[in-house]
Amino acid sequence: MILCHRCGNKFTPSHQAEKNQTHTENNVSAWQYSENTFATPPFVKSLASSAMNGFQPQGETVQDTNSVPDSELRIAPPQRSTVQLWPWLLVMLIATIFAGFLIQQDKWLDNRWFRSTLINLNLPVQQRDKDWLIVPESVQPEWVVRTDGSKVLLIRGKLRNLLSCELLVPEVEITLYAKHQPDQILDTLQLPITMQPDEHAIKQVPFIAPDADSMPVGPLSSRDFILLLQSLPDNVGDFTLSAKALQG
Asked: Among the ranges 16-20, 27-31, 102-106, which has the highest mean pLDDT value?
């Protein structure tokens, strides 16, 4: 600066003005904006770097995020393990069905369709008397006089298989009641069902019974039978028939 003693004005030499102008432009350029980022002055960067270094924990390294790609900065979420529910549901369903079968075993076995299915699968299921029906209207008793003059009781009837599977021919249980006392049981006989005897063989003495009927009875089908009672009490009045399934 130069002070004029005549007019009292102050003047700046040309080389000093150029120097001041250059210093001002340098300070302004350090604080100018780039496109979208505020440019940090060098002395601020050094202060920030010093402060970060001062707070850095011992033994750890601070990674400069400016040099790491964005793809590496993204932290992948933990993968969830997939759980298949249908195997557990299937196991629970089978366990429930099995437990229900054990609790209601007798009722399940009384079901004819269920029993037929088990037998058709060759599972060890015992035959029951309920698997058979002696058709009431088919029972026809008849007294037959043999060649020696003795009388025998001939009973004709029909058996029906109630299951949807083959069954072995059962035996027939005959209960005899007194003539004058209908509630009194005189005797109980259990006879096998044999092959059909002819009329001539029935009247012969002694009676030679045919072989037992070993042919299975088909599903839901019937089989005729003939029973011959040779020795009966004198006061027989009535009788009943019931099927007895073979065991084993």
From this structure: 102-106
Q: Is 109 exposed, middle or buried (0-12, 13-18, 19+ CB in 10 A)?
A: middle
For 213-216, the CB contacts below 8 A with 24+ separation are 213/169, 214/168, 214/169, 215/169, 216/166, 216/167, 216/168, 216/169
Alpha helices in the chain (DSSP H): 14-30, 42-54, 70-73, 86-103, 105-110, 112-120, 199-203
The residue type found at 5 is H
**Residue 68, domain member (yes or no):** no
Q: What proportions of the chain, in percent to the nearest 5, are helix, strand and coil? A: 35, 25, 40
DSSP 104: T
Cβ-Cβ contacts under 8 Å for 156 (sequence gap 6 or more): 138, 139, 140, 141, 142, 224, 225, 226
Dig out the tokens for 176 from the structure. Answer: 């005899």
Among 231, 241, 243, CA closest to 174:
241
Say which amino acid occupies 171.
Answer: E
- Same domain (yes/no): 38, 92: no
Read off the tokens for 19: 């120097």
> If DSSP codes are grouped into helix, strand and coil, which group holds residue 110?
helix
CA dihedral 6, 8, 9, 12 (to 10 degrees): 80
Whole-structure pTM over 0.85, yes or no? no
Indicate the number of domains in the chain: 3
Within-domain flag for 156 = yes
* pLDDT bracket for residue 74 (50, 70, 90): low
